[in-house]
Amino acid sequence: MSELASKKYPPTHTCRKERNVLCVAAAAALFLRDTSQFPQFLLRMARFRGINKNEFFDNQRAYGNFFTLLDAGMAFFFKHLSISGKIVGFTREENWKFLLKPYVKP
Predict the structure, then answer these.
(1) Which of 11, 35, 42, 49 is the most buried (most CB within 10 A)?
(2) Are the C-beta atoms of residues 41 and 63 closer than 8 Å to each other?
């Protein structure tokens, strides 16, 4: 048994209080229905034209808990993902069009 596992740390009031605050914050981020009081539950998404951020095709904002934001982000991603395909014999070949290497400013 390791040295850290063998030590027993007594739970103090401050440790329990901090742990409860973290649990409540995590539960709020995951399951809260009304997120109007929390500005950090906002996801801003945009699809830009070219390599600079001056002009964009689509701009969208989503508000909600973690699962709502995840669904909105994945929907936005798949809305703008181009998929082309062709049938060869009895199989279908799909080509996903996205950048493999992101643009990095020099």
Answers:
(1) 35
(2) yes
Helix residue spans in 32-97 (DSSP H):
66-79
pLDDT digits (tens, 9 = 90+) for 34-66: 877 788 888 999 888 777 788 888 899 999 889
CA atoms in the 13 A half-sphere facing the CB of 93: 4
Query: Looking at this protein, which amino acid is placed at residue 59?
Result: N
CA 5 to chain centre: 34
Specify the pTM: 0.60
Element (H, E) at 44: strand 42-48
Q: At what angle do helices 66-79 and 13-31 cross, to 10 degrees?
A: 40
